[in-house]
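Re: that chain you flagged

S.,

Sorry for the slow reply, it's been a week of failed gels. I finally had a moment to sit down with the sequence you sent. For the record, here it is as I used it:
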Amino acid sequence: MENYIDRTNKFPDFQGLYDPRFEHDSCGVGFVCDILGRRSNGIINQGLGVLKRLSHRGAVGADPKTGDGAGILIQIPHEFLNKAAQESGISLSKPGFYATGLVFLP
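Prediction finished late last night. Pasting the structure tokens below so you have them in one place:
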């Protein structure tokens, strides 16, 4: 059964990194990007528009004001973070060599 491919669908055959066995419904997922990697406030606005349209799919949770469980992933604004870090006496590595995160504490 491992090599079984459902021929009743319209998915292309296995090729390169694509494997039709991994096709499934991703309801509640949206994706917006610039294929050339350009940063744009317009992309952020489009992503927020996607989130607004996903509220019927669980993009809001126990706290409807914050939409816990839903969010957007953006590029790290290095210039902004570097300036803020310097003001706090912290030296950042070059872009691509550090990460950020959010921690919610009680």
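What I noticed first: The mean pLDDT is 79.

Talk soon,
D.
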